[in-house]
Amino acid sequence: MASPSSFSKAILTLACVVLLIGGTRAQLSTDFYAKTCPKLFPTVKKIVRAAIANETRMGASLLRLFFHDCFVNGCDGSNLLDDTPTFTGEKNAMPNQNSLRGFDVVDRIKSAVEKVCPSIVSCADLLAIIARDSVGILGGPRWDVKLGRRDARTASQAAANNSIPPPTNNLSALISSFQNQGLSLKDLVALYGGHTIGQARCTNFRARIYNESNLDSSFARVAKSNCPRVTGVGDNNLTGLDFQSATSFDNSYYINLIKKRGLLHSDQQLFNGGSTDSFIRTYAKSQSTFFKDFVASIIKMGDIKPLTGSNGEIRKKCRRVN
Ligand code: HEM
Ligand SMILES: *[C@@H]1O[C@H](CO)[C@@H](O)[C@H](O)[C@H]1NC(C)=O
Ligand SMILES: *[C@@H]1O[C@H](CO)[C@@H](O)[C@H](O)[C@H]1NC(C)=O
Ligand SMILES: *[C@@H]1O[C@H](CO)[C@@H](O)[C@H](O)[C@H]1NC(C)=O
Ligand SMILES: *[C@@H]1O[C@H](CO)[C@@H](O)[C@H](O)[C@H]1NC(C)=O
Ligand SMILES: *[C@@H]1O[C@H](CO)[C@@H](O)[C@H](O)[C@H]1NC(C)=O
């Protein structure tokens, strides 16, 4: 049998290994800018609040920016980089082109933050704070954001095409795309609740409302009235992802899924007789459970492959590398 001293040595070694492994994941912290940029949070929130007061949908667009950043090689601000004649970024990737928006608001926030603490706060962290503020302002939960990410000096259009799931995905494709990011079935359903706010273009739901049968007829009538059957007509016409409640962050999205009022094919996949149905029922019954799980999952999403230490940079402008 091992002596007490070799036993405690083994425990100590184990603790060190755990710390080392844990250390590479736990580099983000909620007080990262507490000393270097104490005015950060009020500076960001003021502009997010004004942008949403001007246009409610902007809150949704800003939340989506964070998702589309984190799913493409980690939360590193890569989707904010503009294309140039010698550089192809992610803005014209299939899921983003003609669709992702809010870049001007991010620019305004970045300039305001540069004024109070120059070259301190990354664009990647700004996206995390902006997403948090947007959800809170539209009536959703609040949480402490983990910070300390740095900005990518590269972007990948191919990764944006491949890593962000399209609305034509079936449930198993959605599950594996989240699994590829280290996110669980529960994370998928909770994060998908982001569709409680915002809008989609006719081109993304036409095939569903005209061809699918797992669809509420009164909902279909309303959706069709704004999205003609013929491709090319009204393609960019918008409809709320959460029927009649697309401007408030609540659990009605899940209640609507149970009523077969999912706008996108992929939305209704979450409640179609499969393994995610029970989560949907839980969130439809309890907004507080949805809020609690959404917070846990969006913090987990924010932990995807951040650049830290001396990797990446702190961009001066979010649209281009320094
Ligand atoms: C799981 C797979 C997902 C798919 C297939 C998907 C797909 C889509 C599509 C097709 C649109 C409409 C885009 C357009 O028509 O221009 C959209 C909008 C949106 N998505 Fe998702 N999404 C997913 C997950 C998420 C997640 C995890 C979040 C955030 C937590 C999110 C937040 C949003 C928001 C807020 C909008 C509305 C944006 C606006 O109005 O500007 N989505 N999504
Ligand atoms: C306010 O929203 C409108 C769209 O509703 C947009 O055209 C305009 O640029 C916005 N203004 C500001 C200052 O964000
Ligand atoms: C990404 O998708 C867009 C739009 O379909 C396409 O034009 C582009 O060539 C794709 N890029 C890569 C690198 O695969
Ligand atoms: C889901 O879609 C994938 C391709 O994206 C296909 O291989 C698979 O058979 C589909 N699964 C079901 C259950 O329809
Ligand atoms: C409905 O499905 C048929 C057969 O797959 C297809 O030809 C047609 O384009 C679809 N209609 C719409 C509006 O997507
Ligand atoms: C697009 O939406 C607008 C506003 O709802 C509507 O007036 C117009 O008829 C729609 N276009 C088509 C082709 O349905």
Q: Could you explain the architecture of this structure?
A:
The protein is mainly α. It folds into two domains: 40-163, Peroxidase, domain 1; 183-301, Peroxidase, domain 2 (Orthogonal Bundle), CATH 1.10.420. Helices cover 49% and strands 2% of the residues. The chain contains 14 helices and two strands. It has helices at residues 4-25, 40-54, 58-70, 103-116, 123-137, 157-163, 171-179, 185-192, 202-211, 217-225, 252-258, 265-269, 277-285, 287-302; strands at 199-201, 238-240. Strands 1-2 form a two-stranded antiparallel sheet. Helix 2 crosses helix 5. It starts with a helix and ends in a 20-residue tail after the last helix. Mean pLDDT is 93; it is low at 11-26. It binds protoporphyrin IX containing FE and 2-acetamido-2-deoxy-beta-D-glucopyranose (5 copies). Its main location: secreted. Its cofactor is heme b; Ca(2+). The active site is at residue 68.
Question: What distinguishing features does this structure have?
Answer:
2 domains; Peroxidase, domain 2; 322 residues; 2 strands; 2% strand; metal-binding; two-stranded antiparallel sheet; hydrogen peroxide; binds protoporphyrin IX containing FE; mainly alpha; Peroxidase, domain 1; calcium; binds 2-acetamido-2-deoxy-beta-D-glucopyranose; peroxidase; EC 1.11.1.7; single chain
The radius of gyration over CA amounts to 21 Å
Q: What is the spatial order of strands in the main beta sheet?
A: 1-2
Order of helices and strands: HHHHHHHHEHHEHHHH
Instruction: Characterize the largest beta sheet: strand count, sense, and whether it forms a barrel.
Output: 2 strands, antiparallel
GO molecular function: heme binding; lactoperoxidase activity; metal ion binding
Signal peptide: 1-26
Binding site for substrate: 165
Binding site for heme b: 195
